[in-house]
Amino acid sequence: MWNLPSYPASHNMGTNRMAAKASEGVVDGWGRAHDVPNLFVSDGSTFPSSSAANPTLTIVALAIR
What we know:
- The chain is mostly loops.
- It has one domain.
- The protein contains one helix and no strands.
- The radius of gyration is 13 Å and the shape is globular.
- It starts with 55 loop residues before the first helix and ends with a helix.
């Protein structure tokens, strides 16, 4: 684990929890909001944390899916 200082530009992570039940999270496994019909969240906010690499390719893959 590397503790690094925060940078001025970064991906927001972990603000929209992904969960099977609406009582436990904001979106389901497909990124669809539990409470708003036909609303999909396709960014890094559904990830609980981030690794050392840029998450952009994973975000794009989930958006295409």
